[in-house]
Amino acid sequence: MKNFYILTDAINYIEENLCNEIKLEDVANACYSSLSGLKKLFAYTFNMGLREYITKRRMTHAAHDLLNSELSITEISLKYQYNSPEVFTRAFFKIWGSTPSAFKKQWRFTGILPKIMLDFDGCKNEGGLIMSRKRLDLSELYDLLKSRTNSYVLCFDMINMMTINDAYGRDAGDKAIVECLRRIDSLTDDSCILFRIGGDEFALVTNLTDIKAVEELAAKIIELNGQPFIYNNIEIPIGMRVG
User: How many domains does the chain divide into?
Assistant: First the structure.
């Protein structure tokens, strides 16, 4: 139970300060934990570092601002505590594999890492630690589904995600996720809205009511299965299942 409150307070503090300077020590103080203890708990629970989570949440919001606001790249850089557009661009490229300028022209999807939510009712004991079930904040998805009750939703699951992580490292796995999202995003129009609903699981809410049209869209995306993406000059084939 203590771990649940520590992580919940840490996540809430980060969310409230994405546009402010965030010192890791301040996050630890906000949840009444030592910094070393918080880092270990965060990495154990979420399989990512505390700083990495902050960066990915900022880049999720920054991507949204790029597509949905009149803010310039410089203004977005400063908003999320990057002292220059160059530093921001490097951080953005590391997450998205694209510069902010190119992203504005090529993407519609922005939710690379929705806020992580913790469910205390799903707590379980792992190695003496009481851990809660984690999930992503999908409130926007649920609201959309209420308004598109007669439309089809395509659900995607990456193939061999763990194999990529084990063979090439988690950074390669992250790049594979972005590439899968890019493929889906590039083959749909503005009426389709894409969500990341799990580590390597995605939901595409269409505005289609004809099953044949949905099957054609799914087939067009799945036709790309087996095509590789490049990671450190290595071609890594990726694919997805769809339902």
Answer: 2
